[in-house]
Design brief:
This protein has helices spanning 11-23, 132-144, 164-178, 200-212, 256-260, 300-317, 373-390; strands at residues 2-7, 29-35, 39-41, 60-62, 71-75, 78-82, 87-90, 95-97, 100-103, 107-109, 126-127, 148-154, 185-190, 215-218, 223-227, 232-235, 240-242, 245-249, 252-254, 285-287, 331-338, 341-347, 356-360, 364-368. It is of the alpha/beta class and 414 residues long. A hairpin with a 4-residue loop joins strand 15 and strand 16. It is globular. The termini are far apart. Bound molecules: flavin-adenine dinucleotide.
């Protein structure tokens, strides 16, 4: 019996278990998933909790429900991988052996990595929405906040869902306007990037949207520390930004056991071939989802598109055949922009987000880099799609590789 061990039963690990269970004979393959918790969170929904659009209980379901028959689930914290012995050690020192290993333990926010951030003001005037608990606490804070200087801040890239801080900003603008208190809230978006977003065309569009909403933009801000007493962000080049309420995205890092196992880079991401997701160091280890170092967005959509190709590659690989389905870094993300509208971006390793229509060229129904109501409904529908189609690994009418059809190329040279 061959053993496939999947570390992490989140978005990527659950999809992999479902897809591969269908492809690998149960008489020849045992599949085991390890995760530290019984609860599966729909993370994109955390964006909506602070504004009362979703309640925390809307986002949680039992992890076991999304794993198929014939897949074992072990609830335990992973301590380390010993690749030389093809085994994984759990926190209680018990061991699980494997023939093939998939690392899918994602990435998580680390406020303690920035001096002063996780100090006395943490969860008082300093909040985050990248954890389920953090989003819930921020919701309580916003509900009783009566205005002042709101600073939305990213410590460093890469972060998962890199558009989420912008979405938070757009939603906050709409929320405070609806509450009749927008004139009592000064908003500043503080980023280590040189613009509102990573790539030039999208950065220009999204920067203009911040300006329209009277949100100040502070770029190239590399935070050195937070002064909790004076309530200020301080950068390495000695700029200071005061806040009444700071909503920060702390440094994101892969799981610590990855570092303890000697499998990660400086942020605990596993170096892989960006086209096949095979570890650069071990020929029986793959990394899927946010856990790898591939140079595209850390997003559920990337996990989904890459998994569609990985599934066939893995089946061929274990039979000794070449992996010919090569991933291009395809990502797409809805960007909720408030007041019932949203944008969509679609890109890959080589092509930046461009305006146009998606998925049907010229027809949409979604609009790329332009606000529309259809995009908002796409985003809201995504929660159902996540639980019912994405996690079970069902077929979706979307191409895994990015297409240039429907994109307006001339926009790049404007
Ligand atoms: C606020 C927010 C908004 C987002 N919005 C979007 C969006 O609109 N669209 C989109 O595509 N993506 C979005 N994302 C990103 C998306 O949720 C992630 O990219 C996706 O979940 C990654 O899947 P993953 O399987 O790699 O990691 P995860 O789904 O995070 O799963 C990792 C699993 O590993 C487990 N684990 C970690 N360490 C250990 C350990 N030591 N021992 C045992 N188990 C462990 C965890 O419990 C977890 O279940 C958003 C994320 C956030 C936080």
């Amino acid at each position: 019996m061959k053993r496939l061990l999947i570390l992490g039963g989140g978005t990527a690990g659950t999809m992999a278990a479902n897809r591969l269970r269908r492809r690998l004979s149960p008489t020849e393959w045992r599949i085991t998933v390890v995760d530290q918790s019984e609860a599966h969170y729909y993370q994109p929904g955390q964006l909506f909790i602070p504004f009362g659009i979703y309640r925390p209980s809307d986002l949680v379901k039992p992890r076991r429900r999304f794993l198929p028959e014939g897949v074992d689930l072990v609830i335990a914290e992973i301590e380390r991988v010993v690749p030389e012995d093809n085994k994984v050690v759990l926190a209680d020192e018990s061991e699980l052996g494997y023939d093939y290993l998939i690392i899918a333990t994602g990435t998580s926010p680390r406020p303690q990595e920035t001096p002063g951030l996780a100090g006395a003001e943490w969860q008082q005037s300093i909040h985050e929405f990248y954890t389920f608990e953090g989003a819930s606490l921020l919701g309580e804070k916003i509900a009783r906040w009566d205005g002042g200087r709101l600073v939305i801040h990213i410590v460093d890239m890469p972060i998962k869902c890199p558009v989420a801080p912008l979405e938070f900003t757009f939603l906050a603008d709409a929320y405070f306007a609806e509450q009749g208190m927008r004139d009592r809230v000064e908003m500043i978006f503080v980023t280590p990037l040189d613009g509102a977003f990573t790539r030039p065309v999208a950065s220009r569009h999204l920067g203009a949207m911040l300006e329209e909403r009277k949100v100040a933009l502070e770029t190239d801000f590399m935070v050195e520390r937070v002064d909790p007493e004076k309530k200020r962000l301080v950068s390495y080049d000695e700029r200071e930004i005061p806040f009444d309420l700071l909503v920060t995205v702390p440094l994101n890092m892969g799981a610590d056991y990855v570092a303890r196992s000697g499998l990660g880079d400086e942020l605990n991401y596993v170096p892989v071939d960006p086209q096949t997701l095979l570890s650069k160091a071990h020929d029986n280890i793959f990394a899927l989802g946010d856990a790898s170092d591939i140079p595209t967005s850390k997003a559920g959509s990337v996990a989904h598109f890459s998994l569609e190709l990985f599934e066939e590659n893995f089946v061929q690989y274990v039979r000794g055949r070449p992996m010919i389905q090569l991933f291009d870094g395809h990502a797409n993300c809805f960007i909720e922009s408030g007041r019932g509208k949203g944008l969509l971006i679609d890109f890959n390793y080589d092509t930046e987000p461009l305006p146009g229509k998606y998925p049907l060229p010229g027809l949409g129904p979604f609009t790329l880099l332009r606000e529309s109501e259809a995009n908002h409904w796409g985003k809201m529908l995504f929660r159902w799609v996540y639980w019912n189609l994405l996690l079970p690994g069902k077929e979706m009418p979307l191409e895994p590789l990015m297409s240039m059809a429907g994109k307006e190329v001339e926009a790049t040279v404007r």
